[in-house]
Design brief:
single chain, globular, alpha/beta, 238 residues, two-stranded antiparallel sheet
Length: 238
């Protein structure tokens, strides 16, 4: 079992905080988002952990002088998640949990994802709320994911959100990498995990899922950074 944390981006919506430090290393109380992610992975038996870095990569190396492996995405300014994942393609030789570097979510999501027996699975939030084109939307029909992505799901039809965590079993690795390569060949700047997921669905495959049962956020702006800090400071949060 391995994990890859995608942490190559600049975090421009968190400027000026991220002018001198990458967003994964911004303080959340006594920890950081990156350190919390590593701690939760290790708590659930995942000790083989890699980071894909780009912007201010040296800060991540300094923050984790040992215990994690690093891959560099030299094209981090011109590629999205697919570019980072392909930089770490060697990690797909085993069952692999992929976590976006800005995901702050309950420990329960990690536990459920790692225990799910499915070729490809994603973490989702099905809380009722308005959806718009800033959200990686999900369309569930008859208990199954039918479509996924900001542009693939009309706002009015969306009934869930992809949270940025994906589990790929080794048996599904080759097909997942193929779909990522197709996505990046079409649009390298925007190719992301959801494009591989939608391709799986288009090919007639099943995208399994686990549901988040607690507060979470994508830490990508000032309000979400403060939300993560409040959640972590609340009683019993981990």
């Amino acid at each position: 079992m391995k994990a890859v944390v995608l942490a190559a981006g600049r975090g421009s919506r968190l400027q000026p905080h991220t002018d001198s430090i990458p967003k994964g290393l911004l303080p959340l109380g006594e920890t950081t988002l990156a350190h919390r992610t590593v701690s939760l992975l290790r708590a659930h038996g995942v000790s083989d952990i890699s980071f894909v870095v780009g912007y201010r990569r040296e800060d991540y190396h300094a923050a984790f002088p040992s215990g994690v492996r690093f891959y560099d995405n030299p094209a981090w300014e011109s590629t999205d998640q697919a570019g980072s994942l392909l930089a770490a393609r060697a990690e797909f030789a085993d069952d692999l949990l992929v976590v976006t570097g800005d995901l702050f979510c309950p420990e329960q999501v990690y536990a459920d994802m790692l225990s799910l027996q499915a070729p490809v699975a994603v973490a989702v939030d099905r809380s009722p709320r308005p959806f718009d084109d800033t959200i990686e939307k999900v369309l569930f029909r008859d208990g199954r994911i039918e479509r996924i992505g900001k542009l693939n799901v009309p706002d009015a039809q969306a009934n869930g959100e992809f949270m940025g965590m994906t589990f790929v079993r080794r048996a599904a690795a080759a097909d997942t990498l193929r779909r990522l390569e197709v996505a990046i060949s079409v649009n390298p700047r925007k190719a992301a995990l959801i494009h591989a997921h939608q391709a799986l669905l288009d090919e007639g495959g099943t995208l399994s899922f686990v549901e988040c049962r607690g507060p979470w956020c994508e830490v990508d702006d000032e309000p979400s950074l403060e939300k993560a800090r409040r959640i972590l400071a609340s009683a019993g949060a981990r």
